[in-house]
Write a structure and sequence with these properties.
There is one protein chain. By secondary structure, the chain is mainly beta. 9% of the residues lie in helices and 37% in strands. The chain has 2 helices and 12 strands.
Length: 204
């Protein structure tokens, strides 16, 4: 049976154009490679399960958006909550706030869906939550439906990519529920997973 997680080596996990063009370059010797499975480990709950390059469970996502709780938890393998994600109330467009741990105050950053039809390549913007001056941190481009996206920082460096998962056995294909997340050292994998979660909320 084909494994859903990659076999390539990667660096340690936690570190402080058309869609086809976006998905061309990967530097496995410098990047962190994760396999993301759109399946929750909790029965009857939406979410994700994330493995490292050795097949170890590193993150799990529990989605309570359909319940009265109305939030999403990103947790580590032991169940410790790393981030809490909530939809921003009374906001124009599809905007989400990302908080540290299980807090609901002082968000780390916000992610806003692009509604500008003049820039169709852009999917979403990631901004800081500084009350005095909010600044653009990252821009996400590509097609989440095709699992082909790139995250660019303010200097237009490609710091993360979402790519289709290739099976190790010829003739065996993975669906869109299993894909790769490639994260460069300039971006924390926890923040990258928050972006994946929100792209799924915005475009699924």
């Amino acid at each position: 049976m084909t494994k859903i997680y990659p076999n390539a080596s990667s660096s340690p996990l936690l570190n402080p154009n058309s869609p086809s063009d976006i998905c061309k370059t990967v530097e496995p010797d410098k990047s962190t490679l994760l396999t993301v499975w759109k399946k929750s480990l909790i029965f009857n709950c939406d979410g994700f399960t994330v493995f490292d390059s050795h097949g170890n469970l590193v993150y799990r996502v529990v989605n309570y958006m359909s319940s009265s709780k109305g939030h999403i938890f990103l947790m580590d393998a032991l169940g410790t909550t790393l981030l809490t994600i909530r939809r921003k109330k009374l906001s124009f467009g599809d905007t989400w706030l990302v908080f540290d741990g299980e807090t609901a105050k002082n968000p780390l950053f916000l992610v806003r869906k692009n509604v500008n039809l003049l820039n169709p390549r852009c999917l979403a913007y990631v901004n800081s939550c500084n009350q005095k001056k909010s600044s653009l941190l990252y821009e996400i481009e590509g097609s989440y439906a095709q699992r082909c996206c790139a995250v660019y920082d303010g200097r237009r460096r490609r710091v993360a990519e979402i790519k289709q998962k290739e099976a190790a056995v010829r003739g065996v294909a993975f669906g869109k529920d299993i894909f790769r997340l490639v994260v460069q050292p300039e971006l924390d994998t926890v923040a990258a997973m928050a972006m994946v979660i929100l792209l799924d909320q915005m475009f699924s």
